[in-house]
Amino acid sequence: MTSGPPPESTPPYGKPTIREYSDPADPSVPVIRRLQREFDYVMICVLGTTSFRENWRREVRWARCNRVSRPTEYPGLVFSFCTPLATAYAVYSKFDEQSRQVLAVSLLLRWIMAWLVAGHTGDRSVRRWLRWLPVRDVLSALVWLAGGVGRRIVWRDEEFIVEGDGRMRPVAGPAALNSGGVAAGAGAKKSHPGP
Predict the structure, then answer these.
(1) 88 phi, psi to nearest 5 deg
(2) How many domains does the chain have?
(3) Which range marks the domain in which residue 75 is found?
(4) Which of 2, 149, 155, 157 has a 20 to 30 A CA-CA distance from 48?
(5) pTM of the model
(6) 134-190 pLDDT, tens per residue?
């Protein structure tokens, strides 16, 4: 049996690193150490084949839940929709020279970023779908708009109202709850994949 320090090993979930943080304006503030993990892989979630309606409902549910959990930040998401905003500006300006340039630059930057991210994450197969990116951007903006109004969502084929505190109340009312306080059927297995 040998003595000495144990061999170094890297956990399969990432390399631990220590980052130090301090307040440069006030050196008397102690340095804060935080353990972080640097990951060498990208998580992929495949939902399986779903209809447009199922995807729409899922994304609107996510958007409405985001709006409830972050009500002050939600309106600011509008600035992340560069292609729809540039398109709206072009339509409003009757496609004058400046608006066409803004739209072209917006599309070009969006495609370049998507190309680079796809390469960086190793998902090169997504590059063949980049021509559809402007359509996806417009759909994302429409989801954001739909998420900004209303509280009714569909989850696992049942309708709920998202309350102000983030809780989901079944539309059918308290009678639809089982003995555990969960909507009847909400925990049931679905025949198709997805959340």
Answers:
(1) -60, -40
(2) 1
(3) 52-176
(4) 149
(5) 0.66
(6) 999 999 999 999 999 999 999 888 999 999 888 899 998 554 444 444 444 444 444
